[in-house]
Write a structure and sequence with these properties.
about 675 residues; alpha+beta; Helix Hairpins; OB fold (Dihydrolipoamide Acetyltransferase, E2P); 6 domains; five-stranded antiparallel beta sheet; about 20% strand
Length: about 675
């Protein structure tokens, strides 16, 4: 009896897998939705009755009931490299020249061109044919595990087609691809958000990237995610070409984009890139360019990679698409620093995969320079296919009665007076308690790069400010005393409130540099905050420092020093910091003592691409050893570190007689310094 039940369960699973493949991959269903649902119900009932036969690859196990408390780190088998971008034909020919020069002389090569899907990169690991883990790209070497969320995507097989697995050594392999949303699914999702009175998503890419990081797989399963796979990696198997890889992926049951082509030359590559650009808005999903790869895997290995990009592949980015629309009104937004930003409220127009109804105008000087007026017909485009902007006004369609826009006399939110600092283009609201400033400061404080308070986003901050629960970021740490009040708020509930309070408590572990950045001091970005935290070691030392003492910190100029001084001279800010101290935030850092080494107290300029480190990583290594990294070469520069394709900085160093370190020598010195 048990063997018969087990066989019946497995037969049902195979049927459901086959129907999933036909529906989600081939778009060729052979049974009705009702009949499909009946098969799933039958399987669920058998698994409830015989739980000993439930396996992780069963179709019923796609949606986990467990909430993800944290996304664990996952090491990639090989680094997930990001692509260098090209924007015109000349740059693509330059890429082809570098490929030719780095391959053995006279060796023939060909390219494969694939659409560049505008989605979120993921890596899926399979062990013995079954999906084991899924992760984000992360920093390219280590990603975050999102297995429970990825399992909800029905175009991803939980178990691969084993008949094809036998033809290749695929006991342990990794596949990579882009998670995305079909345009129609994205539009439907936004309509549902609108009906629920919730915030709309900006575009399909953002909604896909945000969804795969949700902590509740049940919520993820309600979102219409899809995936295209483009790479397969096995430590046991040697593959011949990228075009073969795509075919193998397809045969294993993965969803592979069919809009690709193998090209014998760069002119043929360009021709196909133009074809893709022409049809991009006819496709049911968003693409923002084409990916050009050397087809041969052997040749890819010869070419290798530099820093975080392969030498054998490049992205050819499409031009921003333009549209015509009308400026209905120009409104003004107030940011966290009090700066006013003008926004063009537009007659809605569909552009590059989404409906555009607003575009930033940056500042009043931008309005005056382009002479943008209410009622004007304008040309808009998406910068980088993401941010809408007004390119120009169609002057011959302007109405005679139109008048130039004037800056507001008072704050549009709190009606306070405005001021415009000398040598600045922005107008500022002077009222630090202006509701929009408060909201902006709270959003910055809670953001991932600052205090990283999971769950305290824009919608919740708006609600809490409206209800008087938050007036400053110090109030965030008093919310634990208002738990009973919070759980009464509609849409929150006990569990979500407890998760929020737990995240607030966890944020107290953030280092001093992050806390300093979170305070939102004007001009103090993440980099400046780290330099100030490293130099002064405590908030009290920084608060009591003079402007001269602050500007003595490397790369901290007078504007930052004045802003920091002004911030700490404000009694209200000092009061808030006292409350944050009492709440237990980290306002000091251990002064790091650096022993004598090659890098200490020397200045370095980085030029060209390094193979082991990105520029940011190399800079961090140098500064951690007491050295300084500067942007330009001068007589005061001690060394220039030259990577591949070093440019004018290397020439200037030789001109000035500055010592040059090739990458190998730099790595040797780095290794010696770390051992001291």
């Amino acid at each position: 009896m048990s063997e018969a039940v087990k066989k019946k369960i497995e037969n049902l699973r195979e049927k459901i897998r086959e129907h999933d493949y036909r529906y989600y991959i081939l778009s060729d269903p052979v049974i009705s939705d009702f009949d499909y649902d009946e098969l799933v119900k039958e399987l669920e009932q058998l698994e409830i009755k015989y739980p000993q036969y439930i396996t992780p690859d069963s179709p019923t196990q796609r949606v986990s009931k467990d909430l993800t408390q944290e996304f664990k780190p996952v090491n990639h088998k090989l680094p997930m490299l990001s692509l260098a971008n090209t924007y015109n034909e000349e740059e693509l020919y330059d890429f082809d020249r570098r490929v030719r020069e780095n391959l053995p002389e006279g060796e023939k090569y060909e390219y494969i061109v694939e659409p560049k899907i505008d989605g979120a990169s993921v890596s899926l690991s399979y062990l013995n044919g079954i999906l084991k883990t899924a992760s984000t790209r992360g920093d390219g070497l280590v990603g975050e595990e999102i297995t429970a969320n990825i399992k909800t995507i029905k175009s991803i097989p939980l178990k691969i087609n084993r008949s094809w697995q036998k033809k290749y050594k695929l006991n342990d392999f990794e596949v990579r691809g882009e998670v995305f949303m079909m345009i129609k699914d994205f539009e439907k999702l936004n309509k549902e958000q609108e009906l629920k009175g919730e915030k709309l998503f900006a575009n399909p890419r953002n909604s896909a990237a945000g969804t795969i990081k949700l902590k509740n797989p049940a919520e993820v399963s309600k979102r219409p995610l899809n995936i295209f796979l483009y790479s397969i990696i096995s430590v046991e198997e040697e593959f011949e070409s990228q075009s073969d890889n795509l075919e193998i992926l397809r045969k294993l049951g993965f969803n592979v984009n069919k809009e690709y082509k193998v090209c014998k030359s760069i002119p043929e590559v360009l021709e196909f890139c133009r074809t893709l650009e022409e049809i991009r808005y006819e496709l049911p999903y968003e693409i923002d360019g084409a990916v050009v790869k050397v087809n041969s895997i052997r040749q890819q290995k010869i070419l290798g990679s530099i820093a975080k990009s392969p030498r054998w592949a490049v992205a050819f980015k499409f031009k921003a698409k333009q549209a015509f629309t009308k400026v209905l009104k120009i409104t003004w937004q107030v940011g966290r620093t009090g700066a006013l930003t003008p926004v063009a409220e537009l007659e809605p127009v569909f552009l590059a995969g989404s409906t555009i109804s607003r575009a930033t105008l940056h500042n009043f000087d931008e309005i005056r320079r382009k002479d943008i007026r209410e009622g004007d017909k304008v040309v808009i485009e998406k910068g980088g296919d993401v941010i809408p902007k007004v390119v120009s006004v169609i002057l011959d369609q302007r109405k005679s009665e139109s008048k130039p826009v004037q800056p507001p006399a008072k704050c549009p939110v709190c009606n306070s007076k405005l001021f415009k600092p000398a040598n600045e283009v922005a107008y500022y609201c002077e009222n630090s308690e202006c509701p929009d400033q408060v909201k902006g400061r709270l959003e910055h404080f809670a953001s991932r790069g600052s205090m990283d308070i999971e769950g305290l986003g824009e919608a919740l901050i708006d609600l809490f400010v409206q209800k008087g629960l938050l007036k400053s970021y110090a109030d965030i740490y008093d919310l634990k005393h208002k738990r009973s009040e919070l759980i009464q708020i509609e849409r929150l509930g006990e569990k979500s409130v407890d998760n929020l309070l737990s995240s607030i408590e966890k944020s107290k572990q953030q280092p001093f540099a992050k806390v300093l950045f979170a305070l939102g001091i004007r001009y103090v970005g993440a980099g400046a905050a780290k330099k100030l935290a490293d130099h002064f070691s405590s908030i009290d030392s920084l608060a009591n420092a003079s402007e001269d003492e602050i500007t003595s910190v490397y790369e901290i100029g007078p504007s930052i020093a004045k802003s920091v001084k002004r911030f700490f001279d404000n009694e209200g800010n000092r009061h808030i910091i006292a409350k944050l101290k009492a709440a237990g935030l980290n306002f000091s850092a251990e002064k790091k003592v650096v022993s004598d080494n090659f890098f200490k107290d020397k200045s370095f300029v980085l030029t060209g691409s390094l193979t082991k480190y990105s520029r940011e990583e190399a800079s961090d290594e140098i500064t951690s050893l007491g050295g300084k990294v500067v942007a330009s070469v001068s007589k005061k520069t001690d060394y220039v570190i030259a990577g591949e394709n070093a440019g004018s900085k290397l020439s200037k160093a030789r001109e000035l007689g500055i010592k040059v370190l090739e990458e190998e020598e730099f790595l040797t010195q780095l290794d010696r310094a770390k051992k001291k």
